[in-house]
Specification:
alpha/beta
Amino acid sequence: MNWTVYLSGEIHTDWREQIIDGAKKLGLPTVFTSAITDHEASDSAGDLLEPESEGYWRDQKSSGVNAIRTRTLLAKCDIAIVRFGDQYKQWNAAFDAGYCAALGKPYVTLHDDNIVHPLKEVDAAAMAWAQTPAQVVQILAYVTRD
């Protein structure tokens, strides 16, 4: 069985590549999916609908278009990894974690210990909390083993 792993959250570091590379090196039966990680492309996803607008309405249109992909891939995944970085607030990642919880999808949070407190509810519903991509790879190695 191939496990579909959805990678959610922070887009400013290479954590996704570290997990994908680590899984490949171990030969794990994993397929990875994700939201669009190009920030500008994500922000402008709704611009094709009607004339471009700014602010709230642009964000509304773009978030709806982005949600088509996100909700579909989250519903199809076997497990999600939800990354929270220190520099930016990843409200979308928190939403993804809540969506996983509502669907009964297992998810692992990935973040440093300095943001444990603001993520306490998100972590409480997670199956595990990892601090490094290498730990995520080890979790995937364990859960996908025969």
